[in-house]
Design goal:
heterodimer; A: mainly alpha; B: alpha/beta; Rossmann fold; Alpha-Beta Plaits; 2 domains; six-stranded mixed β-sheet; four-stranded antiparallel β-sheet; 9 helices; disordered N terminus; binds adenosine-5'-triphosphate; binds magnesium ion
Chain lengths: ~280, ~300
């Protein structure tokens, strides 16, 4: 198949997938939740600002608290994006295989790998737009109310989008093997493990227990998405905010470049495995 | 059409499929010539759908091999020339009928313009034109089935697989399917038709294979004169008389009278109506028309066994 033909087919599949994804109610609920959170976030920030105005305070502490709150907003935004990614995409393979919708597609002159890649591109586009909106919204609100801005916002955005794409490869792989419900529970469970791992590594910064560090590293290897977030948080926080140390944003045990490379390799390997499984399986 | 396998549209050799301990299809060998209408007949669970899915590359055989239009099973490029109506056609229900057809046309390799031009044509073919701009969400099972058929034909494929094309269709719909199949034959296309409806197979197919418990147990050439095309019909009329037999003209043959039953043979089902009309015009007060069991049906029942009575 020529490159031109191949890209034509991918565009068709990605386009219809994007339209299908945009019709998922979960996407709109997640967007609604993000708007609600932004509103609460704005009110909280405003209250904090008012409170600060009422008493003498060093601008340094004030700045720290405000940028800390910005990180809380971004973290919520990140969690919501990952969960939304998992819930909207979990059904695309398992559901279409289960219902037989896939039959009329898989018998067209298009390879199974192209079906998977096209679908992945469609969901990637949706996820990136979602993250851009909620992430941009959070920063805009924080800036409007308090005047703080994150460091390296673009890096942060790219890392959060990357984290969601890692989660997307997980749902695609699970979708080639399990039914929708099983795959969904599995994917959320893995995300929970990653979440746990992130906190373990934080705690390890204090407890100095080598075992906890090891456990945290192992969980990050099983599901590296959370370590991508922690890297994003590190990139975005203001140089001094790192001293707010016991939080998901503290710069104890910052995931290294190697952790990001690992996450990329993890996602690639999982996606290739998904293609392999999807090609092998009966429809 | 210069395929190395002697121009067969389908050539299966010993295809088998087991799901765990269960054998769905055992040693399936068959050839279908180009331009042939091939009927695959068998009771529920016999392995018809699994066989079609293996030929289409949807299900991977656990044994044997085959080729379709000269290409190995599952080769993507050859699918440009293949159309498929799945057993239970489903698709994104937010699409309109036209959008669905354009999408499938494009996936099948048509340009956007060509797909847009073909969509109304195939909608017309399956008598769905009035619903062209309705969404699938509100469609009945039969309407979806019609769209599934339209989708299988939009790119004018050389080989068409139809898995139970008349399931869920009303009598008009069943007739439409027959007409569509004839049209495909006239166009030179090959049709592989799965069914457990004997009348459907009988009327449309050139050749039939019976499958039971995953194995082909008999096959038969319908063009063969003695074959099941001929039907015996008996018409009961209150005032039946020998004089009425004179009104029975070809293609109907062998008129006879016993009591109030007028009997005759027809080569195909559609000829029955003309005979009945002629009888009514001759004054017959017709109370019942009953086509008798055909030999194909007898054979099916014998092969399949009474426990599978359909
Ligand atoms: N994915 C599967 N997993 C396990 N068993 C299967 C699977 N698909 C089919 N079978 C089994 O294979 C056998 C043949 O099924 P198939 O669907 O091919 O029958 P069929 O002839 O099309 O029946 P019907 O007339 O009801 O459509 C059945 O016993 C069925 O239970
Ligand atoms: Mg079937």
């Amino acid at each position: 198949m020529s490159v031109h033909e191949s890209s034509r087919v991918l565009r068709i599949v990605a386009g219809v997938t994007l339209r299908e994804a945009a019709r998922r109610r979960i996407l709109w609920v997640a967007l609604g939740a993000a708007v609600l959170l932004l509103a609460i976030f704005a009110v909280a920030l405003r209250l904090q600002v008012l409170e600060f105005e009422g008493r003498p305070m060093s601008p340094f502490v004030r700045y720290q608290v405000e940028s800390g709150m910005l990180m809380i907003g971004l973290y919520t935004c990140d969690l919501l994006a990952v969960v939304m990614t998992i819930l909207t995409s979990i059904d695309t393979l398992a559901g279409e295989i289960g219902s037989g919708t896939i039959l009329a597609i898989a018998t067209k002159p298009i390879t199974r790998a192209q079906i998977l890649i096209g679908k992945f591109l469609g969901f990637s586009a949706m996820v990136i737009v979602y993250v851009a909106l909620t992430f941009g919204g959070t920063i805009a609100v924080a800036h409007a109310v308090t005047g703080v801005l994150p460091e390296h916002a673009l890096r942060g955005f790219l890392l959060i989008a990357f984290e969601c794409l890692v989660a997307l490869t997980v749902t695609f792989y699970l979708g080639t093997r399990f039914s929708t419900i099983t795959a969904g529970v599995f994917a959320l469970g893995l995300q929970g493990v990653a979440f746990m791992g992130g906190w373990l590594e934080q705690v390890s910064g204090f407890s100095q227990s080598q075992h906890i560090v090891t456990l945290g590293v192992i969980t990050s290897l099983i599901m590296p998405s959370e370590s991508v977030w922690r890297r994003a948080a590190f990139e975005m926080q203001t140089p001094l905010a790192g001293s707010l140390s016991f939080s998901p944003f503290a710069n104890v045990s910052i995931p290294s470049g190697a952790a990001l490379v690992y996450a990329a390799l993890f996602a690639t390997a999982l996606f290739l495995a998904a293609i392999y499984r999807f090609r092998k399986r009966d429809l | 059409m210069s395929a190395p396998n002697g121009g067969f549209a389908i050539d299966a050799r010993g295809l088998s499929k087991t799901f765990g301990p269960r054998t769905a299809v055992r040693d399936l060998s068959l050839t279908v010539k180009r331009g042939e209408i091939f009927g695959f007949l068998g009771p529920n669970g016999a392995g018809k759908s699994t066989s079609i899915k293996m030929l289409l590359g949807l299900v991977h055989p656990t044994g044997g091999q085959g080729s379709v239009l000269g290409a190995p099973l599952g080769a993507p490029s050859v699918r440009r020339d293949i159309g498929f109506l799945p057993e239970d056609f489903r698709f994104y229900d937010w699409l309109t009928a036209t959008e669905l057809l354009v999408l499938h046309g494009r996936l099948a390799g048509l340009t956007d313009a060509k797909a847009r031009a073909r969509a109304p044509e195939v909608l017309e073919l399956v008598a769905m034109s009035p619903h062209a701009h309705r969404r699938l969400r509100g469609f009945s099972k039969g309407m979806l089935q019609r769209l599934g058929l339209a989708q299988a034909l939009i790119h004018e494929p050389a080989l068409i697989f139809l898995d139970e094309p008349t399931s869920g269709l009303d009598p008009m719909g069943r007739r439409m399917v027959r007409d569509v199949i004839r049209l495909q034959r006239d166009r030179g296309a090959t049709v592989f038709l799965n069914s457990h409806l004997l009348s459907e197979i009988e009327i449309t197919c050139d050749r039939v294979a019976f499958i039971k418990d995953g194995e082909i147990v008999a096959s038969r050439d319908m063009a063969d004169a003695s074959a099941a095309g001929a039907r015996h019909v008996s018409v009961r009329a209150r005032n039946a008389s020998a004089a009425m037999l004179g009104r029975i003209a070809p293609p109907a043959t062998n008129p006879s009278l016993s009591g109030d039953e007028i009997r005759f043979d027809v080569p195909f089902e559609d000829a029955i109506a003309d005979v009945v009309r002629a009888l009514v015009e001759a004054g017959a007060q017709v109370v019942r028309v009953s086509p008798e069991r055909t030999s194909l049906e007898d054979e099916f029942m014998r092969l399949v066994g009474e426990d599978h009575a359909l």
